[in-house]
Design goal:
The structure holds two protein chains of two kinds. Chain A is mainly α. Chain A is built from eleven helices and two strands, in the order ααααββααααααα. The chains are: A mainly alpha, B mainly alpha.
């Protein structure tokens, strides 16, 4: 049981990072971005390309990577944020202006399939890893073994979430984002530059997704469909936490990660990916506004 | 000559089976504005239900009822309809994106079931020897395909006229009214949820029919036939042809399927075997460009929705809606 909970928290860290961007785009840009999963995929693969180009330096303690990996994560986040902004400029911005604004969801679904195949085209369909060295799991509690990499994943995710909290509550841009999220028109009237806020949504959402992707690649593996496989749990997390609520997304990610991991005790592991969906379905049925959300 | 002809027959059967699915999607998206991106899931339910009801006895999984093909087809439609009810009831009251998330989710869950519930579906190896009409009477592959094409054409025509009658009826006008302005429609006493649910279920029933026809034609189903790429292709067909126009859905299906198989054969002929996977990826990217380009440049598709003007408005003056 303890081991499953630990695994769930590690998975939850990735899901939370991904769900934050998803909930922000849903609330500020008003559409369900199915291509968000591919931002995780690209983050992870950008990291792979960079890790091949840069040397990690000597490995740190029992981690499988060196200081250089921190730089890799930062650069992967920057590149992914750039990709998200590019995607917005080429596809979403045009569709936002046209009268078929509802087509955004379909466009994002199409973009997700295309991006996934761009990954296949560049890197191939085979699984990839950052390091061939084997991370050794050591006991931290009775019956719970984790690797140092996994501890790093949870710590980094927690640090980023605190940083995001400070950004949203203490900076001008963060407050502007919350204002636009609450009421776009009112925010515009008070002189907030909505175009800048939209760009910032992609920067925040894209870079957190990239980090989530790298961390998933570090602890699990990278395959071109990794982001697609994570999109449903991330949606489930965002809906569970309440669409638009960043804290809800973090909480939702943890709950979904735990539920998927612990479910293996009772159900066939083949159905593990269905757990997130079942939970989401249940929430939509009984409490569509989510735990920390305001309205459906 | 006969080689080309038999290929054309083969191609048209596939394209028209997809056009049935695209017609179902057109009722949902084109006329009602419902995002169903779990098309592959309803297609899967139709395929497997048909295989179980009408297929031979399988040693490893459920089947062997050997029911007449028509019963299998009706069963496939009913099964897809039941799944649609289950998905539709909690989500159709909420904002439209929730249906998108729920449908892509149910499609994934159904694929997991197809993959893991070995006793029901045969798991990753799928179900084989699914029967085709008249396969005992007409032994020649070519003539049997030709008869099958005739059946599919008849089904397409039947569905086309049924859908045309439906969307032109008062019921169809309510669907469009809800799509355009939900508040206005409900203020006239129409319950948007009920109409949406009806449209969604009927559309999914048609997709289940497409699945059954496909399973019967191919004779084999496996979980890998129902990846999200299938949903993507059907959407590309509808968007390219023109959503909100049933003829557009059929035209788009034939064109996009021609584009898909065409680029596929070119990639296969030109690329060395080591690059086949990349060629397949490029094929999806290309069709994505077609879909996104269509959405941006010509969102109405090749033949878009016709403007329907009520008789009163026409009498009133110049009014074209």
């Amino acid at each position: 049981m303890g081991q499953y909970i630990a695994d769930g928290i590690i998975l939850g860290a990735t899901l939370s990072l991904g769900a934050i961007g998803l909930t922000l785009t849903y609330n500020i840009l008003r559409f369900a971005n199915f291509a968000h999963g591919e931002l995780l995929t690209f983050g992870a693969y950008f990291g792979l390309a960079l890790a091949g180009a840069l040397s990690f330096g000597p490995t740190l303690g029992s981690l499988t990577f060196g200081w250089g990996f921190i730089l890799v994560i930062i650069l992967a986040a920057v590149l992914t944020a750039g990709l998200a902004i590019l995607l917005d400029m080429i596809v979403y911005r045009v569709l936002r202006r046209s009268d078929v604004a509802v087509a955004l969801v379909i466009a994002s679904f199409g973009a997700s399939l295309m991006l996934r195949n761009v990954v296949v085209f560049i890197w191939g369909p085979q699984p990839e890893y950052y390091s061939r060295s084997i991370a050794i799991a050591r006991p931290i509690l009775p019956g719970v073994r984790v690797t140092s990499d996994e501890i790093f994943v949870v710590v980094l995710a927690a640090v980023l979430m605190v940083a995001l909290h400070l950004f949203l509550t203490r900076t001008r841009m963060g407050k502007a984002m919350r204002a636009v999220s609450d009421n776009t028109l009112l925010a515009q009237v008070t002189g907030i530059n909505v175009a800048n806020v939209i760009r910032m949504v992609w920067v925040v959402g894209g870079s957190l997704a990239a980090v989530g992707g790298v961390l998933y690649g570090l602890t699990v593996q990278m395959i071109p469909t990794m982001g697609f496989n994570l999109i449903l749990p991330m949606f489930a997390a965002a809906i569970l936490g309440g669409i638009g609520s960043v804290y809800g997304a973090v909480l939702g990610g943890l709950v979904i990660g735990l539920a998927e991991s612990v479910s293996v005790m009772w159900i066939d592991p083949g159905y593990k990916p269905a757990v997130a969906f079942a939970l989401m379905f249940l929430i939509l049925l009984v409490y569509p506004s989510g735990i920390l959300g305001e309205r459906p | 000559m006969i080689g080309i002809l038999s290929y054309v027959v083969f191609f048209l059967i596939q394209a028209l089976v997809y056009s049935i699915v695209a017609l179902g999607l057109n009722l949902q998206w084109g006329y009602t504005g419902l995002f169903n991106i779990g098309v592959a899931g309803f297609f899967l339910v139709g395929s497997y239900t048909f295989a179980i009801l009408s297929g031979p006895a399988y040693s490893t999984h459920l089947g062997g009822f050997g029911l007449p093909i028509i019963i299998g087809v009706l069963g496939a439609m009913a099964a897809a309809g039941i799944i649609a009810l289950v998905v539709g009831i909690p989500t159709l009251r909420l904002r439209e994106d929730y249906l998108a998330i729920a449908t892509i989710g149910i499609a994934e869950v159904l694929r997991l079931v197809a993959l893991n519930a070995k006793g029901l579906t045969g798991g990753s190896r799928g179900a084989q020897s699914i029967p085709r009409p008249f396969q005992d009477v007409i032994q020649s592959n070519f003539w049997n395909n030709l008869v099958y094409l005739a059946i599919v054409v008849a089904v397409v025509i039947l569905i086309y006229f049924a859908l045309e009658a439906m969307v032109r009826s008062p019921w169809g006008r309510v669907l469009k009214a809800i799509r355009e302005d939900e508040a206005a429609a409900s203020s006239l006493g129409k319950n948007p949820f009920r109409f949406r649910l009806q449209s969604f279920v009927i559309g999914c029933v048609i997709m289940g029919l497409g699945g059954a026809l496909n399973a019967s034609f191919v004779g084999f189903v496996a979980p890998t036939d129902f990846l999200p790429i299938l949903t993507f292709e059907i959407w590309a067909m509808l968007i390219a042809g023109g959503s909100g126009n049933n003829r557009g859905a059929i035209l788009g299906s034939v064109l996009v399927w021609a584009f898909w198989t065409g680029t596929g054969s070119i990639a296969q002929a030109v690329l060395p075997s080591g690059l086949q996977v990349k060629g397949g990826a490029l094929q999806v990217i290309l069709i994505g460009v077609v879909l996104l380009g269509m959405l941006m440049v010509r969102p109405r598709g090749l033949i878009g929705e016709e403007a329907v003007v009520s008789r009163e408005a026409q009498l009133g003056g110049d009014g074209r809606g």
